[in-house]
Amino acid sequence: MRLNQKWQVAAENELLYHSWDDEFVVYNGATGDTHLLGLVAAQVLLKLQQAPADTVSLAEWIAPLQQIEPDDEFVFFIEQILTDFDSLGIIEHTQL
Amino acid sequence: MNVSALTPPELFSRLKEAGLFLQAGPFITHMQTSIRSVAEGIGLLYADYPLAEDTGFADFHVHLIPPANLRRWFRPQVLFSFDGRIPFKPLPLDQAFPMLEWGMNWCVSGHSHQYLILHAAVMEKQGGAVIMPAPPGAGKSTLCAALINRGWRLLSDELALINKASGALVPLCRPVSLKNESIHVIRRFEPCAVLSREVRDTMKGTVAHMKPPAGSVTQSHVSARPAWIVFPKYQPGAVTRLEPQPKARAFMRMVESAFNYSQLGPQGFQMMENLVDACDCYEFTYSNLDEAVAVFADLKLPVR
Amino acid sequence: MKAAHNLVAQVLRHPESAVSLSLAEWDLLIRQARHADLLARIYALLDDQGLIDSIPAKPCAHLESADTVVKRHAQAIRREVLCLRKALATIDLPVILLKGAAYLMADLPPARGRIFSDVDILVPKGQLNQAEAALRLHGWASSHHDAYDQRYYRIWMHELPPMMHLKRQSVLDVHHNILPESARVHPDPVKLIEAAVPVGEDQSVKVLAPVDMVLHSATHLFHEGELEHGLRDLADLNSLLRHFGDSPSFWSTLESRAQELELTRPLFYALHYANLVLGTPIPESVFINQTVSKPSWLLVAIMDALYGRALAPVHPSCSDWLTGTARWLLYVRAHWLRMSPWLLVHHLFHKAFLSQKSS
């Protein structure tokens, strides 16, 4: 696992969001799929929409928002979210 | 002129020859058949529906075709034709009227993407409409049948049509489809309800259709404003329980119940967003219809 | 039984005439167009002319419904092309799109209001195996498992057995030519590939050159046995010809290219029927120069009787007692053109034998 590799939102995706309380629904115009996201997953996606980022820096950015430490466990949690987004075709690795 | 203006022989010969142009909600269906049980079903359940012969236009042209000569005697079957095309496998002749109902639902859900269409029952009271999406077996139709016998207006027991421009619910008031035990439940609950003959051994078990209240039929042109989304769950012996449902979860369940959400693309998402936003969302568990009716009577319009 | 007026063809020829249709005529038009799969095309045509607001609400709802489906479909195809590009980039092969997906990506008029069930691409024969392997790696799999079908496609056809994407369920046809190996004429696919033009800036997504696109469309229609969508395919040709026909060099290039690729006969039929049924404007000179490949007057008369019926919407209102026969004769003719007599007998026998077995 290359934790330092950067992820980005795949260029063709057009994402629409709506949030109620701490939950988000996201529509991906490219695939026509709708996803239900928890707060952390939504924060990951919103951050990636601003700029490409790697797993560790995402964890470091989100952890304070959740008021927790960006320890290995949290980094692993973020990595899982990224893997899910990848398999859904929402994000991809940046070209080096 | 309504269907009830035709005598049974007139209705039968009209269906057999030129066909009947029946207006239900926003759609005109041109029906043809020489099958007597279908004519009887139409005469009983669609008595209050207006005929729309004079426009010359029908949204859907359907024909229930009786068995050919030899098949007439041995396990006779019926075919549903959609303007000359046969979209389904034939069914036993005895199921001809339910097949007409199912076929009409298919016509609408497959060819009317000018609306967002959900698989849901819709009822209205005092300006607010409740949408009840549910998988089969959740008791959606039973609850719907009970409520429309207690003052709610029926918009539809199967298909919620949502206008793209206004977001309003468009009535498609048609007979309510009841299955298996719910037929007896409704007979006991409302002895005055008019039900069609029970048809056994269909793919959904025993089915019967309930005639909608005449008032709902005459108000078929009046749209309603969405106010509540309720996911019903019938559970034998359960205590009546109405629980708020987080909106994002409700959104995902609404998507699952939609016929054409994906066809509408981003517009579908936006329509659903507005719909869920405008409604109070609940999960409703019930076993007793009288208690259920009382809970629905207490629903308050959402504050906006 | 007399066939009713083909209202679809009338509106395709003269969209402005839709405004004065009665509701009863609209009823028939919607039914014919639904059967011909042209509802959304009619929406697009009326929309282009700014006529949508003059259409009565009831029929308009059906046009709008069809348009909704087509717009979403177009989005799905665009995504599919992106995925194809990624897959073929791994072997440095550009995606050369054919038919519907090509019209869509090149933003050509036939893409407006058109549903096409699969994406078609053209791959050099020498790189067919590589392309197939790259596609498999990216999730596409062959949908035909029957050994006879596999062999039939690989030996005699101009395409691989259809592939399906395991996740998206989309269907892909990989062609290495535009006509079967077994056909009586053999257009050289290398020439088509060399002349292919990129879509916009992107060199990795291409479509056939305008004349080749027209010739392929013509060949497809007049070698195809299943004419259920004949009118729709002819409408594609009509809008391609109207679009490209404005360029002064188009017609002379078309003629010389047809000769080069041995496709003058399908071109004759394409121009003849597009003009006859849909009023496509064709310069007089083209028909005069085409005399080399123009069939005898008797054959033209017979073909007119057959295609006149087969190119109408498949709707009871457009059928007479000869329509079924006409469709069947054209089906046999198409197979005749695509296969040697021996192979035709073998194929029809195998298909008949199979269908007996399965029933």
Structural features, described:
The complex is a heterotrimer of chains A (96), B (304) and C (359). Chain A is built from 3 helices and 6 strands. With 96 residues, chain A is an alpha+beta fold. Chain A has one domain: Outer Surface Protein A, domain 3, CATH 3.90.930. By secondary structure, chain B is of the alpha+beta class. Chain B has 2 domains: 3-111, no CATH class; 115-297, no CATH class. In chain B, the strands form 3 sheets. In chain B, strands 6, 7, 8, 9, 10, 14, 15 and 16 form an 8-stranded mixed β-sheet that branches. In chain B, a hairpin with a 2-residue loop joins strand 12 (199-202) and strand 13. The mean pLDDT of chain B is 95. Chain C is built from 16 helices and 7 strands. In chain C, strand 4 (163-165) and strand 5 form a beta hairpin. Chains in contact: A-B, A-C, B-C. Chain B binds chain C through residues 26, 28, 55-59, 61, 83-85, 111-114, 260, 262-265, and chain C through 22-24, 26-27, 31, 34-35, 56, 58-59, 61-62, 64-66, 68-69, 71-72, 75, 315-316.
